[in-house]
């Protein structure tokens, strides 16, 4: 029987070749998954939810990341709080997965009771000398950037999240995502490593062959292309597209809507990219015919022609359009499974069947999410095969993957691997 000695994670990181996908075991090994959780999900800022998940005082929702469980809630003063879902008595979970409405947090075990501020207000049988003030629920660092909630579980959270805040508060302001509602939500468990989920999302090389619904409104050229592999006609079309892109970016900027690409993708702790993408065809929204799905536009928007404000983080992607937004987060569950949670947001006062049709709103991204899930599963399955070796990224359309894998290796090293 062969006795294979496994390489250390450091050795696997050393084996990574610039411009190539990662060595197989970085995608498939459970010890790497544990290290990834620790580094990228418990020590970096991650997008976990939305202010509109918890619109009213008393609304609470639970998010689990490995063995860590967090409660996102809105307190009586309408402030967002994020606390650990661990009772300060003997550690019981307070809330189960999912969303609920509460006036206090009562531990099901021995009824220790916490206010929505996290303070312990009732702890029976603990004696009159018991000091409740040092038994509040543990708070978690969080930021709401334009209504998108990021948390960081590190004692020393990376400060370069400030750059996302600086750039995105202004870009997101007219959409007022804080005053939206979740019209629909889908959880998909992809059969693949979380890095494959993120790599898949960072390119549109696969789009024309796999996303017929998305391609009506999405211009994959924006994600890069090789001019030499295009026919003269397609090349001309690409040139026209880029001239139009430059022109639209100028007009949008002149109208007060920041649109240029801003990214922080290497030599940084917090990874993000934003740009305002053109929507093809009717130009309004990511729907089957590229027209708006909701007649009630978001926030103070009066125009539907402002393209797709796109924002990536290392566990998220968001598309914000005049009439609705689609946000997705990825949470690793094991080396080979990843939760992808997608939400469709509309104006909080938009009424289903009156202002929007739910099928029209969700059609494109339900299909795209399923197609991407298939692709990630195929990719993970092939990577587990001994025949896999890291392959070359296209320098035209997969540059963002090279940035991502390079950042991954850099951050692992910074955390001692
Ligand atoms: O959602 C995204 O950002 C990516 C980019 C291109 C296609 N797609 C699914
Ligand atoms: Fe929560 Fe005992 S563990 S009250
Ligand atoms: Fe895709």
Give a brief outline of the structure:
By secondary structure, this protein is of the alpha+beta class. The protein has helices at residues 9-14, 24-28, 30-41, 161-172, 194-201, 207-210, 212-215, 232-254, 358-384, 399-414; strands spanning 46-50, 59-65, 68-74, 80-84, 98-101, 105-106, 113-114, 120-122, 141-145, 148-152, 180-190, 262-264, 272-277, 308-313, 316-320, 325-334, 337-347.
Give an overview of the whole structure.
It is a single chain. The chain is built from ten helices and 17 strands. It has helices spanning 9-14, 24-28, 30-41, 161-172, 194-201, 207-210, 212-215, 232-254, 358-384, 399-414, and strands at residues 46-50, 59-65, 68-74, 80-84, 98-101, 105-106, 113-114, 120-122, 141-145, 148-152, 180-190, 262-264, 272-277, 308-313, 316-320, 325-334, 337-347. The model has no long low-confidence stretch (mean pLDDT 97). The protein is 28% helix and 23% strand. A hairpin with a 2-residue loop joins strand 14 and strand 15. The chain has a seven-stranded antiparallel sheet with strand order 11-17-16-15-14-13-12, with helices on both faces. A four-stranded antiparallel sheet has the order 4-3-2-5, with no helix packed on it. It folds into two domains: 46-143, Rieske [2Fe-2S] iron-sulphur domain (Rieske Iron-sulfur Protein), CATH 2.102.10.10; 163-415, Alpha-Beta Complex (Naphthalene 1,2-dioxygenase Alpha Subunit, Chain A, domain 1), CATH 3.90.380.10. By secondary structure, the protein is α+β, with helices and mostly antiparallel strands. The chain is globular and about 85 Å long. 1-methyl-L-proline is lined by residues 201, 204, 207, 223, 317, 368, 372. Residues 46-151 form the Rieske domain. InterPro entries: Rieske_2Fe-2S, Rieske_2Fe-2S_sf, Ring_hydroxy_dOase_asu_C_dom, Rng_hydr_dOase-A.
